[in-house]
Amino acid sequence: MNIIQHVANLLIRSVFHADPASWPWTWLVQAVVIGIAAFLAFAFVAIFAGPVSWIERRIAGRIQSRIGPNRVGPQGVLQWLADGVKCWLKEDLVPAAADRPLFLAAPYLVFTGMFGAFVVLPFGAQVVAADLNVGILYLLAITSLVVVGLLMAGWGSNSKWALFGGVRSAAQLVSYEVPSAFSLLCVVLLAGTLSTQGIVAAQGGWPWDWFIFRNPFMFAAFFLYFTAAIAEGNRTPFDLPEAESEIVAGYNIEYSGMRFLFFLFAEWANIWIMAAISAFAFLGGWQIPGIAPEQIAATKGWEFVGWQALSWTIFLVKATFLVFVVIQIRWTLPRLRVDQLMITCWKYLVPLSMLMVLGVLVLLALVPEGGGADTILRGAMVGLGLAVVLVSALRVRRTFRVDREHYREMEGRDLWYPPYRLP
Amino acid sequence: MTPAEIRERVSAACPGAVEEFQADLLDPVLRLRPDRLREVCRFLRDDPGLRLHYLRLVTGIDRPAAADSETPGGIDVVYHLWSYELRHGCQLRVRLDRANPVVETVSDLWPDANWYERECFDLLGVTFAGHPGLTRLLMPADWVGHPLRKDYARPERYHGLPTSRATVLAEGRAAEVAPAMHDTKAQPIEGYLRLNMGPHHPATHGVINFLLETDGEILKKATPDVGYLHRGIEKLAEQVGYVGTMPYTDRVDYLGAMFTNHGWALAVEKLLGVEVPRRAEFCRVIASELNRIASHLISTGSLAMDLGAFTPFLHWIRERETINDIMERICGARLTYNYLRFGGVSRDIDPETLDKIKHWIDHFEPMMDEFDRLISSNEIFVRRLAGVAVISPADAIAYGLVGPNLRASGVAWDTRRDEPYSIYPEFAFDVVTGRAVHGTLGDAYDRYDCRLREIKESLKILRQAMAAIPEGEARVKVPRPKPAANEVYARVEGPRGECGFYVVSDGTEKPYRARFRTGSFTAMTIIEHLSPGLMLADLVALIGSLDVIAPEIDR
Amino acid sequence: MVPAVPPPVRPNPVRAYFGNIRRAVSSTFEGMTVTMSWLFRRPSTIQYPDRTEKPVREMLPETYRGLLEVDLSRCTACLLCAKTCPLGCISIETCKHPDGAREFQTFDIDNGLCMFCGLCAEACNFDALAHTREFEASVSSAEQLTVRFVDRPGRLVAKAKDLPPRRPRGSILAALIPGFGRRRRRAAPPEPPASPAPAPAAGAEGPENPEGTA
Fold first, then answer.
1. pLDDT of C6 higher than 60
2. CATH code, domain with C110
3. Which end of chain B is more exposed for a tag (fewer CB within 10 A), N or C?
């Protein structure tokens, strides 16, 4: 039972003094509650997509040795509000030769595609707008709506550059659905359910219970999914639909004001969605180490709320970390060419993700869960994960230690140019 | 082979073609009969003993009849030829009738003559018979008159737009007419999508327009359309005199102003016969090499940005910022240096600045490794450039590519080493050539790679120059230049290759004709040749890897 | 000279396939360690114009070629600068008094034309015309771009024999055009008296009329 049914039942019992199981209007109350929940999710997204834009710009700034927005609010945290208001106040231009209905509707479609995904995201132990039993399928389907929106924007703008962007994005998103679906299939195989909450419940709080560290194929599937998700989100190195140095701004070149903001909004919300999906499908979602989901469900009152909040926080932390990785990738890599984009998908990601599905199946048959081989496998994978983290930390440290020694050598000399002061 | 020997061979092969051998000029010129030009040109290019495969420059010079002389006026067309293999060159001149200047085209012999001849047609009205598509290059298609003619009078208005600043100020604002400035004759190809890339496009590095015919992402043809930044600096040079032209040369190549300064100074110093003090030469070399690094930083960084990686660009901008600060100390400006003077430099470089340069080099060298790790070795970056837009060595020479673009194709030619000027022979440095690191020799990655390695060579030169800089004067006083009638061609190795200045003096304080040969101009001519079959994103990589900048093309 | 192009090497396709993956992963990883390390270094930009440690003008070297200014008390009206200027952005007019002294009618520098090449300042033999470090020259109309240095009638042309000392660079311009650098002056910390700061100099100069602009 999820939180929505919980609330609905509570309402029926306390306000209407009826038994939810037999009362004829239960569906209506549930619908209203779902509507309110959807609105809350919507508001949450709106509030989250904004700060993601600020985080992205600050991180980009630091990566590029500059400061980034720091004027609006403390350290610029309200910059996204200022930008939003600015965009709102700007004129909503529609090109004279545009296909007006398509042009006007496209941003909303993109918006809907992105925000529909939030319905099934499991934020906490009981915090999910709707725990559909076809959750993963729904996710894949609703995010495909974005393609239609982008194609409409590209076509409706009646601009050749926009058309290029629209067609590019259609080809790209349709292609990358395949590897991302295959990678998620690995997850579904292990969890035995399509429900998003079910997937989280099939994992555990400790890293060795996460799907990513279950076996080597899952480990690879995570990276394959992550790559495909970045491509689906039109992020560098797959940002061809809006490649500013090739097709200027692609599908959104003719947009201005609020409609333009919708595209940006959808982009930032999408970063968060892809991070959230990776987090719940591979990284254990909201699972709290040491506490089973049943124990949380059994608690009452403030204790219940406390556990919910904790699980929610854990999920947010995991997702935000992945958001950060996506942002960092964007500011590191150049962009692929169109043919290379397709090669990456069809020659590399698709066969590899198929291989992972096969591997997971074989391991499911060969290695029974909870057995000795399973434990060894999980242990080895956690070790591998730790090794990756350690190696990157050492590499980063080495990178700026070279610098630090260099500047120590020059210490005592007057550094007249902006020095790269180390922490 | 000296020009005199070349003349002997030409006379032997094409008797009667040479009308006059002007041996008294600083760069001797063979004057040919106009109707024999093609014959001679073909011989010069194909003769195994001459092999003049590189057409350096085509210049038109208007010479109206003087009022007091009987000699009839005419229009000279001067061709500068060079052979990389045999290291010799010669100049050809044809004198055409001023009323009806017609000469046969050489654009089929040297492909880069195509644009040179269009420019000559545009600015001087010389018709090149047999030229494929002789249209105006720099001026608007419907412009009346030929600006480089001596009797040219500027129209007061063009489509209602005032052409002088005074009129604009008097009228308060510019007229509202927006004329179709560049009506290119390139007809759309049936079945292909016509796409206008530019003049305002992030990847064109300035206001350049490319008319693309595309089949989806794949290009059928890309036709460059230039002239949006044409300021007529060659005409200005005729008006403001030798001294006054120096600041204008900054504006020819705004990323490598030191080299255009240097080329101009060399040309005029050759005309005047001025010796430059040794310390001044060192100052010139130090400033030039710093400028070369700055220019290559922009070039490599913006190439990365064109391919979608913004971070490396900003890191290079940061390093270049420091060079700008140093330049500010050396000459007082960050971009338009105007540093060189005839007979020296405007200011000596003080020891403190030298110290700062040393600091910066110490800091910068590790940054190059970091840059390599960040972008040069990145697989996506490599794949975007390797094997893309391959220029064969023969093509590179025939299209007149110079500098890193030429060397990336494997032609080891560096003006600093091979036609030495200033004090470059005293320094040990390597001439970097393409190594086909990740693909084919002469691909876009080689051009990028060459620039990066050239930065390292420049650092070498800088270190040597700063260690060896002698004491002394940085400038000798040169009276206001008034060279006797002569002709000279001086070249320096700029960041975009050979930066040449062809100056014709006539004994006054103003050059009779000044002609600037820039690397970007010829680099543009090869784009149309390379474009078929490229993808849209490859064109961006090609433009970025050729390092063309708009003011150098249009001048 | 022209090298022979080596034939392309065709690698084993399986090795090439996995080599591609390996290189893509390792080079991305390598690039990300570099960008990650920048998160731990301080930014190198400054916050122009209002949050700099000192005004940017004072960070510039003495050699900087900013807006031109002329110290009329040292100007002999020899017209060398006007002749040297490639653009003709300096216009000088004088008239002769009956007693032989010459008086400035105009000494205008058109900053809209000037390209800051420094040829005029080099030509000046008396250090009258010089570049300042002032570079923020935006004004609200095209006429204001012309700086008129003759601020009052009766400015006599100097004699080359007895010239007063050059007034601090920038002070004349600051007094003439009150708009230049106004915001900075408020934000800047108190300046040491030794520096050629425009604010105290402008105050010290009694007769200088700040209404110099046309």
1. no
2. 3.30.70.3270
3. N
